[in-house]
Amino acid sequence: MTQEFRIRKLANKFSAQYRPSEKVGVVALDIVERYRKNHGGIWVGGVVELTDKGVFFSANALNRMLHSGSIKAQVPINKIRSVRREFGWLTGIVVIEHDGGEFRFRCFGAKNVAKCYSAYLASL
Q1: Residues whose CB falls within 8 Å of the CB of residue 107, separated by 6 or more in sequence, listed in order
Q2: Which of 54, 93, 104 is nearest to 74 (CA)?
């Protein structure tokens, strides 16, 4: 039986798959597309939850309105391989490596989030 664990943070998730809808306007769409091409993806605001079941992201209302398709992501805990923190301006970046690649998000307190979730995974 696994221990119950939960961290919930306002965060921005990085993704190459998310695409803004045409609702954002031509100028903004062009700027976002240039950013996506130059950086390999875009940051989307919402909520990240790290739990004893895995890691989950859901976009906030504004991003759900301004993007096409589903703006959700999840990685089951049994697919997670490691957790680390990377430097980021203003907010740190948490990188969760899993069987399918990386789940990256930025939040305040990233160092502590990465440390706590990594320690929890090591205790299983």
Answers
A1: 9, 10, 11, 12, 48, 91, 92, 94, 113
A2: 54
Is residue 1 a part of any domain in this protein? no
Q: Decide if 50 is inside a domain.
A: yes
What are 23-32's pLDDT values in tens digits?
A: 777 777 788 8
Domain range for 43: 6-123
Task: Please give the tally of structural domains in the chain.
Answer: 1
52 vs 23: CA distance, rounded Å: 37
pTM of structure:
0.88
E-only strand ranges, the chain: 6-15, 19-20, 42-51, 54-59, 67-68, 72-76, 80-86, 92-98, 101-107
Domain with 24 in it: what CATH number? Answer: 2.30.29.30
